[in-house]
Each structure stands twice: as structure tokens, then as C-alpha cells.
């Protein structure tokens, strides 16, 4: 894939807790210059003014996922009301590690019902903290609950971010029926390319400019 094709798959991300409205304006300006798909910001920074064609994503239950489903659903609905086109929700990891995938599916469905299509719902499973079987179980739950994407990571978990192994496993599980977003720890063009080759269909990046500079036009 060339530079422009990769740019069109990027969620240009700013989720530092200290980020300000001025930081978001700079993010949007850079995103427009780079030609990325969207900007991703914290809910408290919504609404965001963007040029035509640049989408707005936000997060939900972020970063721990340890929130009640009804709180996540309310947060997602509020964010959509403030102009978010896409919502990246964090699952309750305790349900995943105990194998309670019915609970994983139920909370995803609660958020899905709170922000129905055409809002894009991505489900963050923190793949670095899970076993292969847990990754598969969460990916299946996301599909059954009506999500649009499964996503590797928040980028804030101590276990780490995206890996090509996790992306391959998630992509194989959802079989093209859902998108796969690789996010967390992707800081150079080589790693970004490897994630795409493994099956990622969206990239969550905070180093978008540096990564795109390393790709051929």
C-alpha cells in the first residue's frame, strides 16, 4: 500500500489526559494535511470542528473498561450527540479473563443499542492482556453484538499494545465480516505495514506524520 492508501486507514489519535482544545485544533489541522480518515479524541473534548471528509471518533469506558454497561451506553450516546461518528469502547476485561463472553456480548450490545448504525462501533479488547482463546471469544462476542470492528488495544495497558499475532487471530476470527483496528505502540512505518499485512483494516496512531513520512507516495 502506498502512503495515501495507508493514510485513508488512520485514526489520528490524541488521548492524553492533559490534551486541551488547542491541542485538538492542532490535531485536526495536521489530520487534514495528512489526509487521514479520522481524528480520535476524548469525549470531554467533543464537539470537534473538522473539514468535510474528516471523521470524528471518540472512546468509551476508557481506558480501563471497568464501568457498568449502562454507563458506557450513556457515554456513547452522549458522544454521538456531540458529533462523534465512531465510538471505540473498552470491554470489561474481568469478563474476558474469566471466560464470561455472554457478559462481554451483553455490554457491547448495550453500547450498540445506544449508538445504532450508521455510527461505527469498535470494540477494544486489550489483546496483549488476553490468551488466544480469550481473544477469539471476545472477537466472536463483538460480532454477535453487532459491532463494526474489533480493536487490539487502548495503548494505556501495561501488558502492551498491538501485535501482528493478535491482529492475525482477530482477522481470522471475524473473517472479513468486521474490521480490525490495530492500535497501541505503532510508531514506525515498518510496524504499521506489518499490522496491515496481518489483516488490520484501520490503524490507531498518534505518530501518523512520522509513519506516513516513511512510506512511499
TrEMBL record:
It catalyses: 2-deoxy-D-ribose 5-phosphate = D-glyceraldehyde 3-phosphate + acetaldehyde. InterPro entries: Aldolase_TIM (IPR013785), DeoC (IPR011343), DeoC/FbaB/LacD_aldolase (IPR002915), DeoC_typeI (IPR028581). The active site is at residues 88, 151, 181. Pathway: Carbohydrate degradation; 2-deoxy-D-ribose 1-phosphate degradation; D-glyceraldehyde 3-phosphate and acetaldehyde from 2-deoxy-alpha-D-ribose 1-phosphate: step 2/2. It comes from the Bacteria. The keyword Cytoplasm applies. Its EC number is 4.1.2.4. GO terms for cellular component: cytoplasm. GO terms for molecular function: deoxyribose-phosphate aldolase activity. Keywords: Cytoplasm, Lyase, Schiff base. SMART domains: DeoC. GO terms for biological process: 2-deoxyribose 1-phosphate catabolic process; carbohydrate catabolic process; deoxyribonucleotide catabolic process. Its main location: cytoplasm. It holds the Pfam family DeoC. It is found in: Cytoplasm. Catalyzes a reversible aldol reaction between acetaldehyde and D-glyceraldehyde 3-phosphate to generate 2-deoxy-D-ribose 5-phosphate. Belongs to the DeoC/FbaB aldolase family. DeoC type 1 subfamily. HAMAP family: DeoC_type1. NCBIfam families: deoC. This is Deoxyribose-phosphate aldolase. The gene is deoC.
